[in-house]
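Lab meeting notes turned into a lecture example. A postdoc, R.K., suggested we walk through two folding results consecutively so the class can see how the record format repeats. The first protein's sequence and structure tokens come next.
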Amino acid sequence: MCLIVFDWQPTASRDNGRALLTLSANRDEFFRRDADPMHWWHDAPGVLAGRDLTGGGTWLGVSRDGRFAALTNYRAPSDMQPNAPTRGTLVSAFLAGERVAPLDYLRGVAREGHRYNGFNLLCGDFTRRELGWYGNRANAPPALLDAGVHGLSNSLLNTPWPKLVAQREALCDLIHADERPSLDVLIDTLRDPRIANDEHLPSTGISIERERVLSAAFIETAEYGTRSTTALRVSPAARGLALEIKERSDDDGSHRIVRPGAFERAFGFGIEG
């Protein structure tokens, strides 16, 4: 993933009408890198996620027992290790592995964080009402997140890059107008192709022309761009929690790229506890 905005409300209840998590995320990737759209994994039947067919991991996923994880890369071109392990397996290992508390998992990742190229990792357990973050380029240990609207792009948590600020504010506005905006509205809002003004662009070691292109929430170039958008909501229900997730992708499952993506998959299920 390259852009994630989310509203986290660990005290949400049916009485106060809030969702536990409201999230939308864009995955940006090279078009030549094949991936499967969101599906239930055959080799890990409790995992629902897309799958990167080069590294074998994923960028965002959930599990039937109420776990969640997502990852963004940290943009530092001068710091890239060509033989570093794939980062997407950090997401799939949390979802498919032995169930541990999010903070415990992130602490384990942090002990090996130096082996990887830069990343941000979100891990959550909805039944525990815990959501944690770790960035291996941050001068900070893993931590559980406080309630509120947060964002991740290709820098550290809540770094005020223009597209992150704009999309975080847009999510706040949506939730203010409607406690439960539709997943379609969340997806449509994040697919914004507008670029930022030059004076607001970050300096990350790439050309100004590249910074402009990558400043859009929805990225479009000849070889690289936003490959899919995912919206997720987890809400208190009569018995446990209700999870809704929808993906709009440029791939119908045959690895044939169609721009802009219009292939959709939606899933919903209950989480006990």
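The second example is placed directly after the first for contrast:
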Amino acid sequence: MQQSKIAYSQLIKNAALKLGFLFCGISKAEFLEEEAPRLEAWLKNNMHGEMQYMENHFDKRLDPRLLVDGAKSVISLGINYYTDSRQADPLAPKISKYAYGIDYHTVIKDKLRQLLHIINEKIGQVDGRVFVDSAPVLDKAWAKKSGMGWIGKNANLLNKKAGSFFFLAELIIDMELEYDIAPTADHCGTCTNCIDACPTDAIVGPYVVDGSRCISYLTIELKNEIPAEFKGKMDNWMFGCDVCQDVCPWNRFSVLNTEQAFTPHPDLLNLKAGDWQEMTQDVFQKVFKNSAVKRTKFSGLKRNIDFVSNRQ
């Protein structure tokens, strides 16, 4: 039985790599005891801002067995999105690298479904669910638990060989596997680059991010007006923010992604500052047709552009 667990786990990891995933780690589906007090304190201090959904399903966030019937294993996966492509106009409002190409939710879910299909084809009937930011799953905690990296001072998962420019996803299944039981040690050391560089002082202490101050939250999750206190502090970011990753020493090991779907839209990087400020609904629909940027809707992106361009 133990031999088959090891063999099946290796089969899954090999299949994940062939599908284009950068990492694959496996953990036992159980209650995340260490995360419970941290999550409770974070919510109690209102660091989730207007993300009310973070308050929902508290128990499910901490125990995947409440999320998936009969859950035995959490397969954590990472997929690289790093690119050295840049927006041509240095004065243009900035967009996070992860949103350059096709919406990662769509791309990764498709790969996860393929992986589940392979498991059923090669191993037998296995039930499970795929997750890409779509349900109350603490992806970084599971990735850390499976040895894919450590949680950095900017609250992102860091990996010694690949930095942090990668998406996380999970496949939770009702099958026992061989578990990775050696979480990676913390390699942040005395470095405080991310804390020092954050434009809005969202990293309120090592390993603690006040989500309500994070530029990614302000430009994507926040549906109301951006508070005036952040005027002139957004570093020209209009969708997401890469600052805490750009300054992280471990990202010198980032490698270019090979996922065709993450290739920037041909028009996106060439838009000048004036193009963004005068953007129409039609241009928005064309450039961001299959992009994660559609989450903000046209009105939300215009709000962001006007805010960072001092037009509000």
